[in-house]
Each structure stands twice: as C-alpha cells, then as structure tokens.
Amino acid sequence: MQTLFVLFSLRSPYSMLCVRARLCMYCLICSRCLLVLLCIVSYVVAAFWFYWTTLVYMINIYYNLIINIRFSFSCTFLGLGFLGSLLQENRITDTTAAEARRGKDIQGIPWDRLSISREKYRQTRLEQYKNYENIPQSGEMSEKECKVTDKGGKYYDFWQNTRSVKSTILHFQLRNLVWSTSKHDVYLVSHYSIVHWSSLNSKRSEVLNVSGHVAPCEKHPGSLLEGFTHTQISTLAVRDNLLIAGGFQGELICKYLDRPGISFCTRTTYEDNAITNAVEIYEHPSGAVHFMASNNDSGIRDFDMETFQLSKHFSFPWPVNHTSLSPDGKQLVIVGDNPEGILVDSQTGKTITTLHGHLDYSFASAWHPDGHIFATGNQDKTCRVWDVRNLSKSVAVLKGNLGAIRSIRFTSDGQFMATAEPADFVHVYDAKHGFEKEQEIDFFGEISGVSFSPDTESLFIGVWDRTYGSLLQLNRRRNYMYLDCL
C-alpha cells in the first residue's frame, strides 16, 4: 500500500518537478564533489611523486653515508674506535719515504698498538668486503676468464702520504675526482671544494667552492648567468689550465685556472636522472680544446671551449657512465648501465662494434696512447683490454681483489696502466709487455681517484676516510734515484 502511494506521488507533475530539482541539486553537488576529489587525487599524486623522488635521493645519500663510515667502522674492529680515532687525530702525521723505509706505516696506522696485525686485518677485509653489483654474482662468474699475473712488479715507489688534503666521494660508483697536471701539482674534490695541492712546497689552496652560489663572470651564448647553488660535485677533469666539474643535477662548471672567476656554466638536462657521470677534456684535430660529458640521461655531449657551444649530442639506449676518445679523435669507447660496451664513430655517433665480455655495468675506460689498445673497467671485478684490430674478444682480462674496477689510467708514454678498485688496491700493469706483470699498491680506505702526472713521473691516489683520509704520492722508479734529502 505504501509502495503504491509512492508510485502515485511520483506520477504527479508537482512531484516530478521536485524530483528534478533534487536531481539537479544532487548533480551540482556531485560535480563539486568530483572536482574536489580530482583536486585531492592530484595533490596525493604530486605529494607521492615528491616524497618518492625525495626518498630515492635520501637513499642514495644514506647509502653513500654508509660507505663513508664503513672504514671508520673497520677501525672500530681494529680496536681504534671512532672516538679514539678522533682523539688521536692530532697525533696522526704525514708519512715520508724515509719514514716508510724505517718501518712506519705509509698511512700512519699504529699497528703495533692494535689488537690485530696488518696482515690479519687485510685477510679480514678480503673476506668481508662486499662488492656492489647490479647483476648478482657477476664477480664470481668472471673469475674463470681472468689472467694470472706476476705481482712482483716495482714501477712506482712510495714518496709521501699527506693528510693536509683529504679527498671525498659523493657518489659511491663515480671515482674520477683526482687529476694531476704535473709531477708536483694535483687537483681533487674535498667536500664542496676543489683544491690544489703542491707537493713541491706542501701547500694547499682552494680553487673553487660550490657550497654556496656560483655564477659565470663571462658572458657566452648558452651560459646560465644565474649559475648554481649548493652544487654536489660528481666528477672532475683538469687538463692544462682548464677545469671542468660535473654535478648531480647535470651541472657543468668550467673554469680556466689562469683566469679569475668561472668562465661558463650550463646544465646538460633538466630530467630527474641528470647526474654527470664523467668528463673528458681533449684537443680537437682543429686545435681547439673540447670536452665531452657522459650523462645519466643516456647522452654524451661535446662542447667546444673556443666558442663555449655544444657541438655534438649523441643518445644511447642506457645511461652512459664513461666515455673515452681515441688518440686520433675518430673513435669513442662508451660504457654504462649495460654489460656490453660499444665503440662508435666520434663524428656520427654510429656504432662500429659491440664489446662482448663483461657481466655487469661498466664505469671506466681509457685508451692507450698508440691508439690500438683500450681498456674498460666493470663491476664484475675485471678490467678488459681490447685491441681495435680484433674486437671479437678482449686480449686480456685482469682481476681485482675486492671489487669493481672504477678508474683506469695509462701513462702518457704507454708503458703502464693503472686500475683502481673501490677501496684498498691500485694495480699498475706493465702494458709494454702484454700486462703479464703488475705492481699491487696496498693500503686501507675508499679510493676517490688515481692520476699519473703528464710526464709519468708521479702517481697520485686519493684515499677517502674520516680518520685516515689522505693523498698518496708515488714516484716512478728510476735506476738513478736520488736520495730523499735531495
């Protein structure tokens, strides 16, 4: 009965009018609700994206922090303790070659006062150090191909270890932060500064500070006159009088060492994944100075420093971690987030051949001065040596002790090649005699970079550690070595 009354009421014109009015009001309310809902959803998505990117960034920072404190934790294991290390800070001094010959540890570590010997702790490090891999078990799977080398080489002798300059690392995979311009002069990254160290007069000077605001003092087309603030330096290159620093957000800061101020600033990309992974300065066949930047946005960019203009831009299927130009300027070795590297034409960017062999991502490459040989370093703990005359396979596979090969350098005369692991070991191979023999330089701490001086007389190694951070210098062994006092 009640149902019939409701149906009868709905049929009346007045009732229908009321229903329509209510429906219109409901539609208006619903449309407003939908609008509010869309606003809420948009806000939530934006907030999620902001917090997600922040989380990824913080994870990277915290990961690097963990790596930063790892060796300090190791000191605790040694019996020093972090607080004890800080208390001993003022008592840790530089080490000279003469002191090292008399038995002093080259890093000043007081092994005689510790509860563990250096040999025992080295064994512990070898057993417990965790190599970072993007592809699991790549280090173990690469061992069967590795060449057995004679480790009895003596090519560079320890000269001094200075704690007046302490190199630092911001990104745990990028280790090109030390550059030598002469046997006495070296540039390195120390926190938010780029510093110059002269081993001739033992003086440290700040070349560039990026903790605040930096901007170019010269006007060039394409230069960001507003500059950058609080730049996080991810990579560095110095050659002759030109210094290039790359940043986490795609920043490139160019400074001539013989001029005041900054000459040029630019940002390679505004993408989220914009980190500048590597920079190489070279002389173009025309005689002009160029530099090439490898970027995480999968591109490489070539800049002409005569005009301060972008001259070439090539894109690839994966992030580019390192690029090396052949001595004749015709070919590029490109490695990145892919086990296979590529050799490309430097003018067109077209692939010449693919490099098969590595099992993980690569972060280092370098050409031998003769232009026939080049090397690539990988997270599978190997350095592979290639010959452009036969690229069907690598001619040598050289194994690291602890982890990835993150930096490679050849001497200018082509006689030696240095490879740096993430920590503790730098290997110097006799490239002139087929990489059969090597010198293994053994110390403790993360490695920020290695660099031969242009005249091959010095080898500099940046050691990153809260307590024992320093700069190691080794000098080339000669038959006519002078006495230390001279």
Automatic annotation (TrEMBL):
Question: What are the record keywords, sorted?
Answer: Membrane, Transmembrane, Transmembrane helix, WD repeat
Q: Which Pfam family, any one, appears in the UniProt record?
A: WD40
Looking up InterPro entries in the UniProt record yields: Quinoprotein_ADH-like_sf (IPR011047), WD40/YVTN_repeat-like_dom_sf (IPR015943), WD40_rpt (IPR001680)
Cite the repeat ranges for WD.
Answer: 355-396
Q: Which residues cross the membrane?
A: 23-49, 61-83
**Protein name (record):** WD repeat-containing protein C2A9.03
Give the source species. Answer: Flemingia macrophylla
